[in-house]
Amino acid sequence: MKAIMIIYNQAHTEKVEYMLDKLAIKGYSLWENVQGRGSVKGVPHLGTHAWPEINKSVLTIVEDELVDSVLDIVKKIDSVNDEVGIRAFVWDVLKMV
Length: 97
What we know:
The longest helix has 14 residues, at about 65-80. It is globular and about 40 Å long. By secondary structure, the chain is of the alpha+beta class. The chain has helices at about 15-20, 65-80; strands spanning about 1-10, 30-35, 35, 45, 55-60, 85-90. The two termini are about 15 Å apart.
């Protein structure tokens, strides 16, 4: 099992939701109003007057076989408009109850 955290500009919400549905990923946790600044473009997403954009984050636990499919779709979403921003991070799930 793998944990995948996807942090994305809220403009990508429909695309991320579609990806979860398309890959039949039912279980996830969602955080809204996630603030931060990306390490690639470095544009702040703080929800303020000066930096009005804001992010969301979704965490899901999936079978190992799904990881590449998720990452491929995230990469495609990012390639359409890399200035909007989306990133995915994967790590091992050693145990869960």
